[in-house]
Amino acid sequence: MLPFARVTIIGLGLIGSSIARGVKKAMPGAVVTAYDADPSVRDTVHALGIADDVADSAGAAVVDADLVILCVPVGAMAAVAVEIAEDLPADAVVSDVGSSKASVFAALRGALPGATIVPGHPVAGTEHSGPESGFATLFQGRWCILTPEDGAESAPVIRLRAFWEALGAQVELMSPKHHDLVLAVTSHVPHLIAYSIVGTASDLEEVTRGEVIKYSAGGFRDFTRIAASDPTMWRDVFLNNREAVLEILQRLTEDVTMLQRAIRWGDGDTLFDLFTRTRAIRRGVIDQGQDDARPDFGRAHGE
Amino acid sequence: MLPFARVTIIGLGLIGSSIARGVKKAMPGAVVTAYDADPSVRDTVHALGIADDVADSAGAAVVDADLVILCVPVGAMAAVAVEIAEDLPADAVVSDVGSSKASVFAALRGALPGATIVPGHPVAGTEHSGPESGFATLFQGRWCILTPEDGAESAPVIRLRAFWEALGAQVELMSPKHHDLVLAVTSHVPHLIAYSIVGTASDLEEVTRGEVIKYSAGGFRDFTRIAASDPTMWRDVFLNNREAVLEILQRLTEDVTMLQRAIRWGDGDTLFDLFTRTRAIRRGVIDQGQDDARPDFGRAHGE
């Protein structure tokens, strides 16, 4: 029994195209319809053969759907919802993969007042973008957070849970507000800081860009990966999860200031204590299968 | 022709043990003598068979050496230099692998006034520590910075360059002061920020540690790797490269404040412009072979 027989994906970037591939692989028999506002993406999806059908409009894409997943930047959700409103079947479930949930739910509910909406967020990705970058196993072992309006495990939530589990993900329910705070910590502020460090390094007068790149293996290169993520997607995340991002950023700034002071005053114990504590978190990440256990993420070294 | 026939390595952690393995592989015929202040590390080195000889004291280790490489935390350099002063052959070259160069040179010169000292820093590593973690190819394609006192390509510098090139590294000469600024940007401040983000995340009341770990694939997990690096080594780096670290940290804080303001005021263009600019730096890192070109550092995804 398929959780959904007719799945429509709108927005075929890294996440949307990975869902399409995952459905083909894990839910044979399900029909995947794709639509992307960019005609060249539609052509690529057609050429890749990762959808059964590529529609010419968002409305045409959803007309037969029993699940519609919006995989566009969070700032574009409202417009897409307006585009599908007229053609959306009454019994279809509408979900999304956006990184901020309170803002997305408000946008979708505003445009689709009568629809069954279960916002979602698979916490997975790479720094690459576009339909060529997706792959079927992207969600294996990752968590997908669902933020249903009433917080309850209703029938559509149960079906959507089964859908994500079929793609290899584990599913957790959460309020949109709590989601937005948790993701500010585990994703949004880390991205902002990575972008910022890479920006600061490339703007220095005393150190050339060539030097920054050459000696990046000292740690900097890790930040450049995250800072290569899609600019539109991330701009929208920060504009749509403003409060939580600013709150966590404020906390981080206080903690950095404390470390700055410890360095200035030669307080090695404060540094050592923190550096010891943080190792335990890494062990937790590895133990719970949320990162590659191999040294250096499994990067190739020589040979 | 071997650049050095008798190599002594003091401190057999990740870097020291990688050098030992690298010499065995790339310079057969060279004799490697090892010494570590920790008897259990000496036992491990003996059991691993990565050195020809494991000495019982620092002095005994250097008595026949023509190259001595100190691979201890930068805060321990002065004490080790004192330990070897009496037994160091007059024609031996003394080098190190410390992450700060001005402080290390001062420490070595103070304890070894007549010695030939060529400080060095191979910009390579993983988050793992100890003699079991090293491997012969760690320096392949990475850069090793040498900071000779007069900045000149003298005979000992030429030999040390040949040594590092035999280990697979590329070599660059630099002043200690410039090294310390470059590394503050490309290594020290990124590490400090990573430690700090992981610390901040694990201290929040509103978000549990379990949640931070579960949803770490959103970006946070990248920071946990760096924040699992050796606490002693990194405490010493910050205490010994104070000025440059504080200077770069100040620059970063200004830039983060600017982004904070952009988020607060909804200035998407400022965010989008930065996020686009930083992608170019990532391309440079990949193009110049300083990171794995595969998505997500080549991490395993499912399967």
TrEMBL record, chains A, B:
Keyword Transport part of the UniProt annotation: no
Catalytic activity line of the entry: prephenate + NAD(+) = 3-(4-hydroxyphenyl)pyruvate + CO2 + NADH
Entries under Gene3D superfamilies matching the protein: 6-phosphogluconate dehydrogenase C-terminal like domain (1.10.3660.10), NAD(P)-binding Rossmann-like Domain (3.40.50.720)
Statement: the UniProt record of this protein carries the keyword Oxidoreductase: yes
Domain Prephenate/arogenate dehydrogenase per the UniProt entry, residue ranges: 5-293
GO molecular function, a single term: prephenate dehydrogenase (NADP+) activity
Pathway: Amino-acid biosynthesis; L-tyrosine biosynthesis; (4-hydroxyphenyl)pyruvate from prephenate (NAD(+) route): step 1/1
EC number: 1.3.1.12
Xref: PROSITE patterns: PDH_ADH
Gene Ontology terms describing biological process: tyrosine biosynthetic process
PANTHER family cross-referenced by the UniProt entry: PREPHENATE DEHYDROGENASE, PREPHENATE DEHYDROGENASE [NADP(+)]
Name of the protein described by the UniProt record: prephenate dehydrogenase
Source organism per UniProt: Sphingomonas carotinifaciens
